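Consider the following input, taken from an annotated entry for Amino acid permease (Hymenobacter aquaticus).
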Amino acid sequence: MPEQTSAQPYKISFLTGTAIVIANMVGTGVFTSLGFQVLGIQSGFALLMLWAVGGLIALCGALCYGELAAAMPRSGGEYHYLSQIYHPALGFLSGWVSATVGFAAPTALAAMALGKYAASVWPAVPPQALSVAVVLLLTAVHAASSKAGSRLQVVVTAVKVAVLVVFIGAGWLVAAPQPIAFLPQAPDWQQLLSPAFAVSLIYVSYAYSGWNAAVYLTGEVADPQRNLPRILLAGTAVVLLLYVGLNFVFLYGTPIPRLAGQLEVGYVAASQIFGPAIGRLMGAVIAVLLVSTVSSMIFAGPRIIQVMGEDLPALRGLAVVSRNGIPVRALLLQTFLTLVFILTSTFEQVLLYAGFILSLFTFLTVLGLFVLRVRRPDLPRPYRAWGYPVTPLLFLALSGWTLVFILRDKPTESLYGLATLAVGAGVYFLGRRLRAV
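Applying the prediction step yields:
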């Protein structure tokens, strides 16, 4: 057989891309959010509508991102889109948020949730100490080898989905129904317009975050103009069905007072429905799944910081890589930020802070769809957002409504988010000045 002199670069297929989207979405949020939502909302209908509306927002966003990705088929996501549509400064701020908040905060949230779930199964384990230990251990592993912890990501994704499907099916068959109504009553519609519903959408939006994951890999997707919109829609639709089903089972089989204020709702619901032994098993399984979430975030995040260091003189030191090609300095920076979140904030504060600032940039990106159509009507668009202009307007209306209520009802977390942008703007203009010297 003749020896091959060249090989075609690997391209991500529709199936693999859909798995990437699902893997990025199914993480901390769905296992932790409901306990905070039931503190302000008691209606079964309104609670399920939270997850349906959150899924609708994600689907509308995926439709819009599909058009942008097909029109501008280059990796980089919001960093690329906002730089081209508005100004490089806004693109940089998007990258800055991804590099600081976008990975460090979700890593901290996953580690904090892991600690809580582990403590539910093994009460002697101190949650915060375990969270810190897991982050430090995985940082050491990824600093030593770029391949460590990455080979089983597809298998872990399949396990995550299987756990959810089995839990939904078994819970629905076994659970003793609780006295909660899922069909709407007259007062339920008022809750859909309440501040509690708007603030709870941030929790739900965080759980759905990752629906845009494939746009960061546009350059590696086979036939991106055709496949990328399909990947975004298929992955988001699957997760929407899983999330609504899972939260239905949580509420169907567990009294709301038992869920209220609890972080580890998966463990609480499993214990109520299947008994303490299965509940502990479920808590242990979720804790293991969250280890994979922490690992993937620690692996991916420093690469964005490294690229930004290559582009901006002020961050040039963070672009340095080890002999194994690992951006160790960027890795250590992300780990430091993650530990700050774990040691200084509650889970709810970190979630609202991260949710607010990340939602702000997806809002600006979808708004950019209108801007791009006006400024570049001649730009080839192999895929156009279905339902335009209704779908992007619906995304903007729901996301904007949520952001306004977060600013009003959670000013501390919102101000921290805006302060992060202010620091990023300072770094950008300092870098521009150093480049001009």
